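Input for the complex:
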Amino acid sequence: MVQDRQPILEMKNVVSAYGRIKALKGISLTVYDGEIVTIIGANGAGKSTTLMTICNVIRAVEGDIMYKGERINDVASDVLPTMGLCQVPEGRRIFPRLTVTENLDMGAFFRKDTAGIKEDMERVYELFPKLRERRRQLGGTLSGGEQQMLAMGRALMSRPKVLLLDEPSMGLAPLLVQQIFDIVKMINGQGVTVVLVEQNANLALQCASRGYVLETGSVVMEDEASALLTNPDIRKAYLGE
Amino acid sequence: MTIQESKKLWIGLGVGLFWFLLLLWPLTGIEPDGLHFAGTWAIFAKVALAALVIVIVYQLQQSGKLDMVGVPLGKARDAVRKGYEVAPTWALLVVVLGAALIYPQFAGRYGNDVAISVLIYICLGLGLNIVVGLAGLLDLGYIAFYGVGAYTYALLSMHFGMSFWLCLPVAALLAAVAGCIIGYPTLRMRGDYLAIVTLGFGEIVRLILNNWMALTNGPNGILSIPRPELFGFQFASLSSLYYVILGIAVFTVLAVYRLNYSRIGRAWEAIREDETAAELMGVNTFLLKLLAYAMGATFAGLAGAFFAARMRFVGPESFTFLESAMVLAMVVLGGMGSIPGVILGVLALVALPELFRGFELYRMFVFGGVMCTMMLIRPAGLWPAKRVGRRSEEME
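Predicted:
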């Protein structure tokens, strides 16, 4: 059923490297419009590298990255958000010495429609009421969970079609993690395609429709999320059984 | 103050004095004809006595025995601060600008001379502040653009008889172009690497000025550069020159203020905070860093053109690395990213050495001590950039 839909983002045999060390050894994955796809794997499997390669922060040495049917290998990182492809990088990476509002404004940096930006800011504040309370505070003074919300809100300010989320649960209390995942689902419900990179495989697979398992730079398994959740190998390797 | 705190204080004093002695004796006691101790002890006794008095006063103050002096003082300080917060910004600006305008009426030749160099360094400091304070790019060769501005005016006025006012924008433009030329290959680097490369480029510019005999007359420099002139009025006196550089400095402050609170200014700050994240948010980091470089260089170019007109002479030795380091120190000491901070930093580093002339031989020693103390007491600068909610409030 999913296969009938048009893929919005596709990687075909993508290889990328840090110097001479290959981090991705020919990765292929397909993301369809409107779904949540998760990429799980252990430390150093290449999950974050995959997202950074999509965003051209790390250049793909081989292979094609397609977005909406166009090859985006050579599109500069700062142009991708204008096309609707936005990343929430690992470790949040908000701007610590800018205020919350200014951080959100940076997300809409390339946009010129003042009214639309204001509207989106309101939407982000409704999604994350904590941020409204703290809107005049410097980003660096927020707690970890609030910073994660800020990073997600900042990305939403660019009105993304595809949101790349890198480990949104990192370093957060379990209750907050659940909250973040609920919000991911909510964002997805509003029509945003989500690519979710996670170490918390259990929650990620519950939330996603399909999943890819990465091991040392290669895709070792891809399936429906529900099938991966019940797969004994996956349960053993990533779900702690 | 508890016994522990007090003990810590006295141990600190002892260790500090011992350390001072270790440094002092080799400097004063070792001489070609043998080792001496008397001189060292004489200096050491004075310093130790002063330190002892300071610590005793501090401890009395902590224990509340000096409250009859300290409390009224604190109240007075609070009142001044409150008054400052209540007073509208424009009123303060009017007072400062008014004082700046009537200053030459009261200052002598020497006072005007110091004021002119303060204003030149304000332009330089604010320009460098864009590069270092806002965009977060450590530039150790900044003075090169000052040199480009100075030589632009010198050469254009000597060879083509162009007027100062016409040369001013040309100098700014050429400095900006130089900024782009230097920036284009170097801005691919980050952090420490960038600092080293800019240091190298600064030296290259100085060496070109020093060795291109045909154009720059080499180490001899260019002599008798004409003074600025407006509708037949010669800006010959120091006080009239003061007004020229005051105008340039005010223009610089306004321009940097506008940039600071613009969309571009925020993008620069985002780049300083996290370059990759800024890029992922759609900021063209390369272009904006180049722009920061060019804008910073522009103000150095303006200051340089004035410098050439004021000195009536330019030579390569005015544009050494030490000058770059001084401007950088002004920015850091004053408070990176803060306009009043940079101005205070300039005042501190240009005016203080003049005040310390009374110390004669120990002038630079006292100056170094004051710099260390200031950085210990106010590590974020004399007037740190305070901008919590500033722009956000404007939006609401």
